[in-house]
Amino acid sequence: MDLYGRYDVVVAGAGVTGVVAAIAAAREGAKTLLVESSGILGGLLTGGLLTKATGIIQPGVYLDLAERVAQYGGGDLSSRQAPWGTYTGVFDPETMQRAIIDLIEEAGVEVLLFAHVVDVLQSEGTVSGIVCQTKSGQQTILADVVIDTSGDGDVAALAG
Q: In 3D, which of 20, 28, 23, 82 has the Cα closest to residue 45?
């Protein structure tokens, strides 16, 4: 098993929650790695074609993404009414993918795609890293903080 690297923060899962967590961590100065089992960043937002919010977009990284999409001409941040209430933000998923990549690069987040978490490393009951199966074999990734945004709680389940 090879050592891939050591990070302040490792985010497992690159859906919108993982993308936002990774960008936020890197913006605060943390050496950050975003790990994704597929080759798609943004999860349902991009690969699942979920193209509108279900509420009002609040300030933060997600609003930064939505504003970037609008800047690129692939989104509209105006308010709309739906049976479930008011919402903001309609966008093109391909343009959102571009905005995600741009903000990740600007923040300095490293990305590891096609890396499935298969185990966790623990020290005194604290997760201290993950083990991923990649196309190059198993990789050990050490971290001060591991954030599980896998959607199914894979890291949490592996940690017991």
A: 20
